[in-house]
Amino acid sequence: FLGFRGGRPGTGQQRQPLFTLLRKGLAEARNPRIALAYGSAFAARGDVVVIGTYVSLWITQAGIAQGMSATEAQGRAGIEFGIVNLAALLAAPLLGILNDKIDRVPALAIGMALAGSGYLVFGLQTDPLANFAFVAAVLLGIGQMSSILAGQTLISQEARPEIAGSVIGVFSFFGAIGTLVGSWVGGQLFGLWRPGAPFLLMGGFNVLICLAALYVGALERRNKATSDADLLASASVAPEDGSQ
User: Fold this and answer.
1) pLDDT at residue number 235
2) How far apart are CA 79 and CA 84, in angstroms?
3) 178 burial level (CB within 10 Å; 0-12, 13-18, 19+)
4) Closest CA to 48 of 195, 188, 180, 193
5) How high is the pLDDT of residue 3?
6) 171: closest CA among 16, 4, 44?
7) Burial letters for 210-242: b for 16+ Cβ neighbours within 10 Å, e otherwise?
8) Average pLDDT for consecutive 10-residue bins of the chain (244 residues)?
9) Torsion angle of the four alpha carbons 16, 18, 23, 27, in this order, in degrees rounded to the nearest 10
10) For the purposes of burial, counting CB atoms within 10 Å of the CB of 15, is it exposed (0-12), middle (13-18) or buried (19 or more)?
């Protein structure tokens, strides 16, 4: 705050008010791809806080209820939490390659589908201490990394350089809202409904973003097909009117 000068390096750009930057960032959501990235930020950041808060809480409570000591239950929770993070770490390079090889919107749809599957499977468990819980933890870790990378790669591609700061700021703003929703709503559902509810909540959000990505992809393909048809029609008409 004290040591860095405002504006883009070397441009002499004047500092703009915060609300002006926020308004510009929100206005960029007219681009469906940026709107999609904002939604993915909401889901991905909510995913992270749900894993960090409720994996250990659920497993610790279940362990104590089944006769473990608090130390033993926390140890088991630590093992599963470690598996989640190890799976995310190992999946990251493969997911990064996928995001580079195909269009970012289908990549985001795949990422959100993986995330939704991981969270729903983990949340639907009846016993987080059963052997299947380790499989669910692997799926959860892959899903977590999928949602994070998919949104970040899409927003980095779509943000125009002259307004990238505002766009990334709004991207983070939606992520912060996702954190609040995952923490508070997830906590309410954890206590009032079932321990797996926070994971089901975020799994549902990820599925919705996946469906939105499929819709945006279909819309882009339709627009491209229409544009190609118009160009083909123009090319076929040109010789008849004598133009060269």
Assistant:
1) 75
2) 9
3) buried
4) 180
5) 65
6) 44
7) bebbbebbeeeeeeeeeeeeeeeeeeeeeeeee
8) 58 63 88 94 92 93 94 94 94 91 92 93 93 93 91 91 88 93 94 95 95 94 81 69 50
9) 70
10) exposed
Determine the distance from the C-alpha atom of residue 226 to the mean position of all C-alpha atoms in its chain, rounded to a whole number: 30
DSSP codes, the chain: --SS-SSSTTT-PPP--HHHHHHHHHHGGGSHHHHHHHHHHHHHHHHHHHHHHHHHHHHHHHHHHTT--HHHHHHHHHHHHHHHHHHHHHHHHHHHHHHHHS-HHHHHHHHHHHHHHHHHHHHT-S-TTSTHHHHHHHHHHHHHHHHHHHHHHHHHHHS-GGGHHHHHHHHHHHHHHHHHHHHHHHHHHHHHT-TTHHHHHHHHHHHHHHHHHHHHHHHHHHHHHHHHHHHHHHHHHGGGGT--
Closest CA to 41 of 164, 209, 211, 220: 209
Token representation of residue 191: 């206590």
Give the pLDDT score at 231.
Answer: 76
Residue 78 has a CB neighbour count (10 Å cut-off) of 14
Q: Which residues contact 220 (CB under 8 A, 6 or more apart)?
A: 32, 105
